[in-house]
């Protein structure tokens, strides 16, 4: 997962996360993406370049337009990394459950 540093660096910016949220609704042009933001179209384009460089979005050429969409591979890579963390947490909780069950068992035996 070599791109995770670049990916999370791109995701650190709230504007970029908002752009990704917009693209989760479907493909959009730069002008459509720029519409809700209080910034220039070139500033939005710079954010899009960062997202594209991180592999989070892809663009295609359609005449003079360059519609953007989410890149499923990058989202899958993030999800795989998060799944590793989920599995580690689940293992820790399972271990904790075992420890607590052992403590309860010892308390029951001590009461008898």
CATH class: Mainly Alpha
| CATH superfamily (homologous) name | Winged helix-like DNA-binding domain superfamily/Winged helix DNA-binding domain
Report the count of strand segments: 2
Give the overall pLDDT as a whole number: 90
Q: Tell me the CATH architecture.
A: Orthogonal Bundle
Determine Rg (CA atoms, Å). Answer: 23 Å
Structural class, by secondary structure, is: mainly alpha
Low-confidence stretches: none
Helix content: 55-70%
CATH fold description: Arc Repressor Mutant, subunit A
Q: Number of helical runs? A: 5
Give the neighbour order of strands across the main sheet: 1-2
State the separation between the terminal residues, measured CA to CA.
Answer: 54 Å
Largest sheet: 2 strands, antiparallel
Q: What overall form do the CA principal axes indicate?
A: rod-shaped
How does this structure look, described?
The structure is a single chain. With 112 residues, the protein is mainly α. It has a single domain, classed as Orthogonal Bundle (Arc Repressor Mutant, subunit A). It contains 5 helices and 2 strands; from the N terminus they run H-H-H-H-E-E-H. Strands 1-2 form a two-stranded antiparallel sheet. Strand 1 (57-59) and strand 2 form a beta hairpin.
